[in-house]
Amino acid sequence: MKITIIFHSVCGNDYLLAKKFQQAFTQNNHDTRLYRVNDEDWAEQPDCSDQAKKILAEMQTVPVAKPEHLLEADLIVMGSPTYFGNVSAELKTFMDQTSCYWFEAKIAGKKFMAFSSVGNPDGGGDLCLQALHNYAKYMGFCCLSLPANILPGQTSNAYGVLHYSMGQYAQSLDEKTSQIINNFVQRCA
Which of 55-64, 114-123, 156-165, 167-176 has the lowest mean pLDDT? Predict the structure, then answer.
C-alpha cells in the first residue's frame, strides 16, 4: 500500500507523530512518503531545549507537500497542531489548494487517517480531528476511525490520534501514543 503522510508542525510535536507513522508503516513494508506543509512564517523557537531545536531543524529538511502528492497515495495520513479547536492556517491553505481534485473527484475513494497535537485534554484536539475528517469527507475519502479498544484497557478518540504536548516543544511521544500508532498500523497491514 502507498502511504502519504502530510503534516504541519510549529513546535515539532506533529512532526514526531508523522515520523512515528512513517516508521510504523515502513516497518510493515508499505511504500511511505512524508511531506511537510509549507510554512513561510516558521521560525526557530528560541525558548526550546537543544533536543527540540535539533528535531525542529531536522523537520525543515522534509520535502514540502504539494497537492499532487495526494494522487499517488492509497492512504493519506494528515496531521496538524490544534489551534482554537481547528487545524492550523497553513494546513487549511494546503487543503484549499486541493479543491481542484474535489471538482473532478480525482482522489475520491482513498483512505484517510488524522492526527493532531494539542496542549492539554481541554484544548480542542477532538475538534481539530473532526475538522480534518470534514475535509476528508468532502474530498470523498474513506475515513478510518480508531477503534475504541485500539489500546487494551483504555478508550481512544475515534477521529484519530491525539498527542497531548502539555506545552512542551518536540520532546518525545509518550508510550501510549506510540502504541496507538503501532496498533493502528498493524490493523491496516
Answer: 167-176
- Phi and psi torsions of 162, nearest 5°: -115, 130
Domains, the chain, ranges and CATH?
2-188 (3.40.50.360)
**Core vs surface per residue 121-144: b (16+ CB within 10 A) or e:** eebbbbbbbbbbbebbeebebebb
Structure-block grid coordinates of residue 151: 489500546
Tell me if residue 53 falls in helix, strand or coil: helix
User: Whole-angstrom Cα distance, residue 2 to residue 95?
Assistant: 20
pLDDT in tens, 99-116: 999 988 999 999 999 999
Task: Compute the half-sphere exposure of residue 145: CA atoms within 13 Å on the CB side of its CA.
Answer: 12
**120 close to 166: Cβ distance less than 8 angstroms:** yes
pLDDT (tens digit per residue) in 17-57: 999 999 999 999 999 999 999 988 776 666 667 777 788 88
Residues 159 and 145 sit within 8 Å (Cβ to Cβ): yes
